[in-house]
Amino acid sequence: QLQLQESGPGLVKPSETLSLSCNVSGGSISSSSYYWGWIRQPPGKGLEWIGSVNYGGSTNYNPSLKSRVTISVDTSKNHFSLKLNSVTAADTAVYYCARQGSGGRSFDYWGQGTLVTVSS
Amino acid sequence: DIQMAQSPSSVSASVGDRVTITCRASQSISSWLAWYQQEPGKAPKLLIYAASSLQSGVPSRFSGSGSGTDFTLTISSLQPEDFATYYCQQTNSFPRTFGQGTKLEIK
């Protein structure tokens, strides 16, 4: 059974960089069939797609965040990562990592999510 | 960006009721639409992909239909575990976008 698990600091100071990692177990991140994505959800609000990466490092980003976001993949460690720089309180959210399936291009496996709070 | 609009924003229903949630895209997305269920404090769960394909393990009381710009998610007979928030997502183009959500509450 495929499992995804987010990890990283739960508290980040304004203007600093948010860094999260998503460890994938029970399957290989190197499959050409999938993209691996990050989605966030501010407290009490809806879902926002941040971006996705494939095993070869090809990325797609949300234009609203593109200038601040980097998503990368490490196939040797079977994980992928998110960096969001120059954070503000508006970046406070639960951050989810997920697998984008090849069939309907939808997110079929999700991590449990990790709350990141931006505060001094 | 493609905008996704769900209606209603919230709905109250009883166990056994049939419920329909609508999602409208700002431009045609063919059948590139997914539906998710999210319980409080949990990650979203994929229910339907490609507008009408049931994800493995999802009960058959869930069904999806539509193409182009108008889509529906139907729950044929509500069960207690179905009271949650539902989101649609277009998977036609980047950036991927979600509807604002529909909260399904117990009447």
Briefly summarize what is shown:
Chain A is mainly beta. Chain A has no helices and 11 strands. In chain A, the strands form 2 sheets. In chain A, strands 2, 4, 5, 6, 9, 10 and 11 form a 7-stranded mixed sheet that branches. A 4-stranded antiparallel sheet of chain A has the order 1-3-8-7, with no helix packed on it.
Provide an overview of this structure.
The complex is a heterodimer of chains A (120) and B (107). By secondary structure, chain A is mainly beta. In chain A, 0% of the residues lie in helices and 51% in strands. Chain A contains no helices and eleven strands. Chain A is globular. The mean pLDDT of chain A is 96. Chain B is an all-beta fold and 107 residues long. Chain B is built from no helices and eleven strands. Chain B has strands at 4-7, 10-13, 19-25, 33-38, 45-49, 53-54, 62-67, 70-75, 85-90, 97-98, 102-106. In chain B, strands 2, 4, 5, 6, 9, 10 and 11 form a seven-stranded mixed β-sheet that branches. In chain B, strand 5 (45-49) and strand 6 form a beta hairpin.
**Which value, in Å, is the CA radius of gyration of chain A?**
14 Å
Q: Secondary-structure element sequence of chain B?
A: EEEEEEEEEEE
Structural class of chain B: mainly beta
This entry's quaternary arrangement is heterodimer
Task: Give me the count of strands of chain A.
Answer: 11
State the helicity of chain B in percent bands.
under 10%
Q: What is the 3D form of chain A?
A: globular
Radius of gyration of chain B: 13 Å
DSSP E strands of chain B, number: 11
* Overall geometric form of chain B: globular
Question: For the largest interface in this structure, which chains are involved and how many residues does each contribute?
Answer: A-B, 24 and 24 residues
Report how far the terminal alpha carbons of chain B are from each other: 36 Å
Q: What is the typical, i.e. mean, pLDDT of chain A?
A: 96
Low-confidence stretches of chain A: none
Strand content of chain B: over 45%
- Distance from first to last alpha carbon of chain A: 39 Å
What are the segments of chain B in which pLDDT stays under 50 over at least 5 consecutive residues? none
- How much of the sequence lies in strands of chain A comes to over 45%
